[in-house]
Amino acid sequence: MRSDDLLYRAMMNGIREMVFIVKVETDGEFTYVFINEEAKMRSGLSEYDYGKPIKSLQDSHVTDYLYEQYRYVIMTGEEVVYKDSYQSSSGETYYSKTRLSPLLNEAGKCEYITALVQDITESTWAERSAVESKKRAVESRERFRSLFEHNLDAIMYLNLKGEIESLNKAAESLFIDENIRGKRYFDLISSTDHLKASNSFKSVVNGNAESHRLSIKTREDEKVEGLSLFVPVFVGGELTGIYWILKDITSEMKAMRNFHESEKKFRIIAENAQDLITLVDHRGLIIYTSPSYKKLLGYIETDFEGKPFSFGVEEKYLKELDEAFVRAIKEDKPFKLQVRQLKGNGTPIWTEVQGTPVFDEGDVFSYMVVISRDITLTKQYESKLKHFAYHDSLTGLPNRRMLEEEMKKELAKEDTVFSVLILDIDHFKTINDTMGHDTGDAVIEEFAIRLSGSVRRSDLVVRLGGDEFVILLYDVGDQGVLAQIAEKILLSVRRPWILQGEPFGVTTSIGMTVVNEKNNTAEEILKAADDALYKAKEQGKNTYSVTMLN
Fold first, then answer.
1. In sequence order, what are the residues at sequence separation of 6 or more whose Cβ sits closer than 8 angstroms to the Cβ of residue 476?
2. Which of 103, 154, 216, 409: disulfide with 170, CB 3.0–4.6 Å?
3. pLDDT value of residue 128
4. Helix, strand, or coil (residue 74)
5. What's its EC (predicted)?
C-alpha cells in the first residue's frame, strides 16, 4: 500500500478526533477541502460539501465565530486553540476543544487551515458535576453551621473522651461566666445525675442516641433543669464525636413541680396576684379564674367559669387565640400573644396572654395555665411614641415622615390627583433675631393654627422644620380652586397678630403644584412646589405662585 493511501486511510478512519482542512479562498471565503469520517459522522457534512462556503453550511452564529478564528490564524500565522460546543446531526450537544493550524505556501502565505477537534464532552460534564457537587456541599455545610450557631438550644460537640471541643452561642450564653472548652461534660452535670449521665454517654458511644432530663451546673452556685439529648456523630461509618444538645426547661420544671406539690400554694399565689390567672380544660372551657378578675375586669371569678377560654376577647383576635391554644397543646410549648378584651363595663383593655400547657404523667393534656397581664399603659406609650415619630413636637402637626408616606399612598392610586403647597413665613429670621426664639416659636404655633383652619380637616398640614410648612390637598387638581385656597390662606395669615401684648403683622409666601400623574416622585413634586415658592418670593412675597410638573 502506498504511503499516501496509508496516510489518507489513517486520516479518514484511524483518528478519533474530527479533522477538517479548510481552504482560504481569494475572496475572503473559507471552504472545506477535506473532512475525515469522525467529522462527517458528528457534523453531518460530506464530500458533497467540499468547495462550498462554510457559512452556507452552518448557522450564522456558528460561522461568525469560526470566521473570526480563521482570520486570526491568517493574520498572525499562529495556532489558535479554543473551546466550543456544537450540535450533532442527531440534535445532541457536544463540547469540543479545537486547534487551528495554518498551512503556509512557499511565499509564507496561509493557503489552508487544519482544524483538529477533540471531543471533551465527558470531561466538561464531569467538571460541571464536580462544581455543582462542591456547591451543594458548601450549601449543606453553611446550612448546618447556621443551624448550629443560631439554634436557641445550647449545642456542644464532645470528643470521645467526653471533652467539649466546640459550642454554639446559646451554650456560651448559658455558661457565660466560664470558659467550658476542654472541660469534660461530666463536670457540668449535678452530682445527683452523674449515674444517669454516665450511662447515657456509654450508650451513645455505642452508637445510640440518648435523651434525659439532667440538672446542669451553669455557675458555682446555680443550676438549671435541662433536657439533654446526646447524638452520636458518624463520619465514613466511624463514630468521631457526640453532639450534646441542651434545652433549658428550668422554668417549666419548676412550675410543674410547684403545681404538683401543692394546689394550696398555687391558690395562695393566685389569690394575691395582680395578673389574671386562668385554668382552661381540654375542651377549651374555663375551670378556674383568680380573684384579680374582679379588680381588673369587674367580674367575680365564677362569672367566667364554664365559659369558653376566649370569652370577653374582641372578635378580631378570636381566631389567633384559638390557633395559639391548639398549637401549644400539640407542640407542648407555651404561647404568648397580645389581645384586646372588654371589661364588665364595656371598656376595652389590652392584655398580654401567656399560656403554658400542663400534661399528666401519661403525657395527656390536663389544662392550660394562662397568665394575662394588663398592658394598656404600655400600648398607650407605644402609641405616643408612634405619634412622636410622625408629628412635630412644637406644633403637633404631622412631620416630613408622614408627608412622604402619604404622598407615596396618593401616587400609588389608580387615579392620582392632588396638590402640594409649600409655605414659609416672610422675614421670619428678622422676627427671631429681633424678638427672640420664644416669640419665634409662638409665631410658628399660631401660623400652624391658621394654616389648619384655612383648609379642610381631611387635608394634611405638615411642618417640615423651621418656618417651612407643606399642605397636601387631596383630590384638588383645578388651578382655580387652588388659587381660592391660596387667597384664603394669605388672608388668614394677614389677620392682625397680638404678640407680647402688641399688634404684629405676619405674611406668608406660597409655592404650589398640581399632581395628576403617577410617574412623578415625591422629591420631584416638592421640588416643583419649592420652585414656585421661590418665584413667589421674587414677586415681592405675601403672594403665591404655581409651577406645573413636567
1. 417, 418, 419, 482, 485, 514
2. 154
3. 78
4. helix
5. 2.7.7.65
pLDDT in tens, 335-387: 888 888 877 677 888 888 888 998 988 888 888 888 888 887 777 777 677 77
Which triple of cell numbers denotes residue 120?
Answer: 471533551
pLDDT at 1 (0 to 100): 43
* Three-state secondary-structure class, residue 19: strand
Which residue carries 452556507 as its cell? 56
Residues 6 or more apart in contact with residue 258 via CB below 8 angstroms = 265, 266
Q: How sure is the predictor about 4, in pLDDT bands with cuts at 50, 70 and 90?
A: low
Specify the pLDDT at position 372: 82
Answer whether residue 299 shows pLDDT above 80. no
pLDDT at residue 270 tops 70:
no
Most confident of 47-61, 193-207, 259-273, 459-473: 459-473
**Coil, helix or strand for 529?**
helix
Cell triple for 99: 486547534
DSSP 540: T
Of 483, 505, 479, the closest CA to residue 493 belongs to 505
Report the alpha-carbon distance of residue 214 to residue 221 in Å, rounded. Answer: 16
- Closest by Cα among 331, 377, 378, 376 to 355: 331
| pLDDT at residue 89 in the model | 60
Reported as a pLDDT band with limits 50, 70 and 90, residue 150 is confident
Q: Residue 283: which of 310, 259, 263, 257 has the closest Cα?
A: 310
- Residue 293, CA atoms < 13 Å, CB-side half-sphere: 21
Distances (CA, A) of 430 to 394, 442, 535: 20, 14, 21
Distances (CA, A) of 403 to 180, 209, 411, 523: 54, 60, 12, 11
pLDDT for res 499: 76
Sequence letter at residue 320: E
Tell me how many degrees the CA angle 441-446-451 measures, rounded to the nearest 5. 125
Query: H or E stretch including 22?
Result: strand 18-24
Q: What is the DSSP string of 37-63?
A: HHHHHHH---GGGTTSBGGGTS-HHHH
